[in-house]
Description:
By secondary structure, this protein is an alpha+beta fold. It contains nine helices and eleven strands. It is globular. The protein starts with a strand and ends with a helix.
Amino acid sequence: VVVGLRGKTYTEVALELQGFSSRYFEKKNFKLKFEDKVDLGLTDTPLKAKKLILKGNWKDHTLIRESLSWRALAQLGHPVPATGWVHLVINGKDYGLYVAVEAIDDKYFDRRDYEDGGNLYKGVNQKASFAPQYTLEQGFEKKEGDDLDDWSDLASFVDLVHSLPSPPSDAQVFDEVDPIFDVSWFLERIVWMAYTQNSDGVSQNFYLYNEPGHGHDHWVMVAWDGDIAFSAHWRIDRLASDWWANPLLNGKSHLAKRLVANAQVREELVQGLQLHLTTTFAPSIVRPWVEALE
C-alpha cells in the first residue's frame, strides 16, 4: 500500500491488522512494515525502524491513556515503547488520528543497549498467566529467535514457577527465581498496574525477552498495550474501580500469586506501593504530564 505519514509518502509498505480482540472494533489497529528503516518521528532524536504499530485505541477516545501509561512505567526505570500521534492516510483514504507505537522486536532491545539475538515471546491472552492448566502454546507466541520451534528456555522458566510451593521460601525466590527473573522489577510492574488500573496487563499483553550474555537465562519483561487504563474499561459504559478497591496484586497471574505468597516479597510490594503511590505518582508529579498533552 501507499502510506502518507508525517508529511512523507511511502510506497510498497506492507499493511497488516494488528492485535486480537481489536480486530473486531470499528477502528482497526495496523502494523506497517517498511522496505527500509524510516524515522518514526516518535522521539526528539531520530528513531529509525522498519515497523510501526498504529493503534486506533477504540476503547480510549481521548487517545492519551497509552502515552500516560508508558510515562508512568518509565518513571520506574522500565523500558517502554516510544509513542506519538499520526494522521493516517492509506491509498488516499483518510483514517483519522492514530496512536503510533514503536514495535517490540529484537531491534527494540538493541536500541536500548540490551544484548540482541535472544528469544522473544509475547503473552497474547489470559492463558499466559503461568498457570499450570495451560500449555505454553495456548498463551504465548514466539516472536524472535534462531529456532522458532524451540521453546525450551520458556518451558524451563514456567516449570520453575510451577515447582514453587505456596508460600515459596526465601531461598527459592531469591536463589532460584531472582537470578533469572528480577523479582523487584516484577513488583514494580505490579505497582504500575495498580496505579494505572491496567487490568488488561495482569496475565497477558507483555513480552518476555531472554537476554543472552549472562551465562544463564535472563528474562526481561516488557509491558504492552497501555490504553485500557486510568478508569478505561473494555465495556465503554463502565469504569474501572479505584486502585485501592482493586489493587491487582494477584489477579489471574499465577506467577504473581506464587511470588507474592512469600512474606519478604509481599513486604517489598507493600513498601513499593506506599512509596510510589505517594511520591513517584503523586498528583503534583502526574498533573503536568496530562497538561502537556492538552
